[in-house]
Design goal:
heterotrimer; B: 316 residues; mainly alpha; ABC transporter involved in vitamin B12 uptake, BtuC; two-stranded antiparallel ribbon; 2 strands; C: 425 residues; alpha/beta; five-stranded parallel beta sheet; 14 helices
């Protein structure tokens, strides 16, 4: 059944998926990769973003992408609040409370998930947009808009974040804060403010990622759990602290899943991605592009 | 053994006797089902804490070890109709081996990397089980309980007693570790692994011991599960709530001693069992989540820590 | 007399005590005369993966309870429900049912929704010799062979095959006859079972299997799967899936341009309002299983009245507003329980079970007759095809002609449009 056509399409589909995975993992790449905060609740914020996009789309006919962008500032504020609580309770108390931080985010995960269940019920929700369900064909390769648009947005988000982190003062401050907060103070940036900013940005990305998610497939409150592993795997695989690494890792994972699905059997797709992760961790724990 | 040790031993024996008396006098079967779950969580929380609280390696993959115990039992039941004791022993050995493998992984992975790896492990294992037709695969399998239990009126009381013994056993192991050189070695690793290595602590051997014991006990907790539920499917065996609870209970109770996981398991476990049959709606899960977050933010040393603080203040 | 008021006080107190006692006794007597309610206990998925259906089922059961109590209850006693959320987690089930039986002391029990939530309760039911009604469980009684178990969905004695028999029988009647088939489904309980049934059917008929794979339920993108299927160029594509993957497969098939001669199978969720309205015309031509659809051939007595009551409440409660899939069956299940209680004039579990085995019931989903293993004596799963869906408006689905029954002949309300591509024009 092997054909070049099939292979090409599988790779392309995997890359498109990878772009989307990158969008979901960017938040974790920032918080875990740069701030060393293990925010396992991030996927549930993505789901929250999916629901806010759904609400605007279902009630006012707003395009999901627009909805995601509109809500980003709101999510930013939410991120700031969450980080403040986390900081006061754990980080300011020193190293030993890592486990506590983990449990905090675990608890937060369940609280948000149940909150969504109470508000929206457990029926699957989808969004409507004119381009969902259509595809374009470039020669033998078919590209569904439903996946193309999220991939494009994911790439755009990665680029923006990369530029922000590399070229702006606060961006560079974020990159530096985990490594050397003293040096940071010396150049006039308050480490706590910088970290708060970074966390806020990461949750803001969740708003957009959520809009992308609900474009691709129906959403209900508990599907976030499937993404916890994927997002962390991608961040670690790419290397902590590297945004470009995250994108690369997301692509690799997406393509690996797609190839396994197409040729050997979808059952093993997820296991293959995690297998890759375990392999990389065993051979090179710093990931592909980590410091 | 010290005075404290001896008095704890007496307490343990009294506890088991009490459980036994319970089975003789209590008619209401509901208590046994509910208490079984709480006892099971005592084992899981204690097991988790040996690796997480004592040694400082946070394990997200409790589900993998628990399910390994569950499915090794299912396999033995279907293949040989093996008696429960054999199932427990085998489950413990298999899960212990997985723990050993995980221990070797720590050579390369510290801190959160280790935790992510445990998550990955759970996913890979679940995929294998889903594709293993003999034990039911994705659709699960029905397990017929034996008709008669030795010494007891019905099988659930027997399982309840067995789980009680397992709980006492695991707590005893934790107590033993805590009061031995091994425990001090674990604490050294938790506080600063590099420093420990430099001062000659055999960190690799200790880590292997921690992961193996922890994994073994988690697997053992899972072995009576097929008979308890009489139905097993990957979703319930690998359920995320096991990972959540086995982590939350020690944290809420207190991670530095054997008592913390017990307190956390009894409190959270009982609360959840009660909530299931009273509030019984999404609010149930919401409240558990809120309690968890409140505790971890306001009382990070757990309940044991709170009590210790209180006692110290009284003394001062 | 030194203190005459003292005597009055004593006599007054005695009189008051007498009056109070009489009043209490009278009240107690009155209460003892009031009919003790009949308590029916169950666990139900109100949170978790199956909650969308679980909540809808609960709503239907409450409607039944209101209907019954309006007519004076069962054997003159009002009906009460005692239920707990099983969280779609099988591990909660034994605890819930022992609480219901030993602490709440319910008189009757029915099951929660779904195979996995029924299974853990079986040993308890067998142990206590209780009559147990199951709501949409597949093969729960195969190993136990318990005589007091019944199951309401019309799968019949060979449940797994019920989802594919009609489909393939229809396929083989078409001209030109299809020769090849692709089987695909989710790694989960129902799809696994249904696919197993399909494999047997396919072997019997002699179709060549070109593709036979499963996917994990949380797959995000179905495009690679659909492409791989398309590459094998099968005549028939048979899919067994749960709601999110049903939607995913339909969307992916549409995008990739998969057009076999027949497409469909055991795709759960395509009947849910959310997917009906969101997928709309993309569903045209898909052949799916069904239990009840609003076609003229299935206008059983009472179904319209039920839907009139259910639909406004459902919209308010945030569950499936059309309610064609599970709710009528939850109601019918309770109808049978109620009928048995009235028929045996009591709550004896053995008599109830015998009565239910013996009788053919008239319910809002038609005539129901059980076989010795508790399943329907004869399968009545229908095969339907989505046709004539235009746009995404919900109201069109209330009308017949959108979910056309094409098999069996007994309920046929239209012809199969074959090949699949013809239905999509």
């Amino acid at each position: 059944m092997f054909s070049l056509d099939l292979l090409l399409n599988a790779v392309v589909a995997g890359a498109l998926l990878g772009g989307f995975y990158a969008a979901v993992s960017l938040g974790i790449s920032v918080t875990f990769g740069l701030l060393d905060v293990v925010n396992i609740a991030h996927p549930v914020f993505v789901i929250l973003g999916a629901y806010t996009a759904f609400t605007l789309n279902a009630n006012y006919g707003v395009d999901p992408l627009l909805a995601g962008a509109l809500f980003a500032p709101v999510f930013f504020v939410l991120g700031v609040v969450v980080y403040r609580v986390y900081y006061t309770s754990f980080e300011s108390k020193g190293e030993g409370s890592q486990g506590g931080g983990l449990v905090f985010f675990f608890g937060l995960l369940f609280i948000v998930e149940v909150g969504l269940m109470l508000k929206f019920g457990v029926d699957y929700r989808l969004v409507e947009a004119p381009y969902i369900g259509e595809s374009i064909h470039l020669g033998p390769i078919g590209l569904a808009y439903r996946l193309l648009v999220p991939c494009a947005v994911g790439l755009l988000m990665t680029l923006c974040l990369y530029l922000f982190l590399g070229k702006t003062f606060y961006g560079r401050a974020i990159m530096g804060v985990a490594q050397d907060s003293l040096a940071l103070r010396l150049v006039g940036a308050d480490p706590v403010r910088v970290k708060t900013l970074a966390f806020g940005i990461s949750i803001a990305t969740a708003s957009v990622a959520g809009a992308l998610l609900i474009m691709i497939s129906p959403v209900e409150p508990s599907i976030g759990r499937a993404y916890i592993g994927r997002a962390f795997a991608i961040t670690v695989l790419g290397g902590l602290g590297s945004i470009g690494g995250t994108l690369t890792a997301a692509m690799i994972l997406g393509i690996a899943e797609s190839l396994t699905s197409t040729f050997s059997g979808p059952s093993w797709a997820l296991a293959v991605s995690f297998g890759i992760l375990l392999l990389v961790l065993a051979v090179r724990p710093a990931g592909l592009f980590g410091r | 053994m010290s005075v404290k040790g001896r008095s704890l031993l007496v307490l343990a024996v009294l506890f088991l006797a009490g459980l036994f008396a319970f089975t003789r006098f209590v008619e209401n079967r509901y208590i046994f089902f509910a208490a079984y779950v709480v006892l099971q969580y005592i084992v899981l929380a204690t097991a988790w804490n040996i690796l997480g609280g004592y040694t400082g390696y946070v394990n997200f993959g409790t589900g993998a070890f628990f399910a390994l115990g569950v499915y090794s039992s299912v396999f033995l039941i279907q293949m040989f109709r093996a008696p429960l004791l054999v199932q427990i022993a085998t489950g413990g050995v298999v899960a212990g081996l997985l723990g050993l493998g995980l221990g070797y992984l720590t050579l390369r992975l510290r801190g959160t990397f280790f935790s992510i790896a445990t998550l990955a492990l759970a996913v890979v294992l679940q995929t294998f089980v889903i594709n293993w037709e003999y034990v039911g695969g994705a659709k699960g399998t029905t397990v017929l309980r034996p008709a008669h239990a030795p010494f007891f009126n019905n099988y659930i009381e027997f399982l309840f007693m067995v789980m009680g013994c397992l709980a006492v056993g695991s707590v005893a192991i934790a107590w033993f570790i805590e009061h031995s050189r091994i425990g001090r070695g674990f604490a050294a690793i938790r506080d600063n692994e590099e420093a420990a290595e430099c001062t000659g602590v055999p960190t690799l051997k200790l880590k292997l011991l921690a992961t193996t014991i922890s994994g073994c006990l988690m697997g053992v907790a899972g072995t009576p599960f097929p008979y308890y539920l009489s139905f097993v499917d990957p979703d319930s065996a690998f359920n995320l709530s096991y990972a959540l609870n086995s982590l939350a209970m020690p944290v809420v109770g207190g991670t530095t001693t054997w008592l913390g996981p017990v307190v956390g398991a009894v409190l959270l476990g009982t609360a959840q069992q009660l909530a299931t049959v009273t509030i019984s709606s999404e609010l149930n899960i919401l409240i558990v989540g809120v309690v968890l977050v409140l505790f971890v933010v306001l009382a990070p040393k757990g309940i044991v820590g709170l009590v210790q603080q209180f006692v110290q203040r009284r003394r001062a | 007399m030194k203190r005459p008021w003292r005597r009055w006080t004593v006599w007054g107190a005695v009189a008051a005590a007498l009056v109070l006692t009489l009043a209490l006794a009278g009240n107690w007597a009155a209460m003892a005369q009031a009919p003790k309610p009949i308590k029916i206990g169950f666990g139900m998925a109100l949170t978790g993966g199956l909650a969308a259906n679980g909540k809808a089922a609960l709503l239907a059961m409450e409607i039944w309870r209101a209907d019954v109590n309006k007519k004076g209850g069962l054997i003159g006693r009002p009906v009460e429900f005692v239920y707990y959320d099983d969280q779609t987690n099988p591990a909660t089930v034994p605890g819930i049912y022992t609480k219901l039986l030993d602490v709440d002391k319910v008189d009757l029990v029915v099951s929660g929704y779904g195979t996995n939530l029924i299974a853990p309760a079986m040993p308890l039911m067998i142990d206590r010799k209780l009559m147990f009604m199951g709501l949409f469980g597949l093969a729960n009684n195969d190993k136990h062979k318990y005589a007091r178990y019944f199951q309401i969905s019309p799968n019949g004695p060979n449940a797994a095959a019920a989802f594919s028999d009609g489909f393939f029988e229809l396929a083989m009647k078409q001209n030109p006859k299809p020769k090849t088939v692709a089987l695909v489904g989710a790694d989960a309980e129902f799809p696994h079972n249904a696919l197993a049934g399909a494999r047997e059917t396919v072997k019997k008929i002699g179709l060549q299997v070109l593709y036979d794979k499963t996917y994990p339920p949380n797959t995000v993108d179905y495009t690679p799967i659909v492409r791989a299927i398309k590459a094998t160029n099968p005549d028939i594509v048979f899919v067994c899936s749960y709601p999110p993957d049903s939607a995913g497969m339909v969307l992916a098939a549409h995008e990739v341009g998969l057009e076999p001669k027949m497409f469909g199978g055991g795709m759960v969720g395509l009947h849910f309002t959310a997917l009906l309205t969101k997928l709309g015309p993309k569903l045209n031509g898909i052949v799916d299983y069904g239990f009840w659809v609003p076609e003229p051939t299935m206008k059983f007595p009472g179904i319209e009245a039920f839907l009139q009551k259910y639909q406004p409440d459902a919209a308010k409660a945030g569950v499936d507003p059309l309610g064609f899939y599970l709710p009528p069956w939850a109601y019918a299940m309770m109808q049978i329980v109620g009928d048995a209680v009235e028929g045996t004039k009591g709550l004896d579990q053995g008599k109830l079970a015998d009565y239910i085995h013996a009788k053919e019931f008239d319910t809002i989903v038609g005539k129901v007759k059980f076989g010795p293993d508790g399943e329907w004596a004869k399968a009545r799963t229908i095969t339907m095809q989505f046709q004539n869906i235009k746009g995404t408006d919900m109201e069109q689905f209330r009308q017949p002609g959108r979910q056309v029954i094409v098999y069996p002949d007994e309920f046929k309300s239209g012809n199969l449009i074959y090949p699949y591509s013809a239905a999509r024009k």
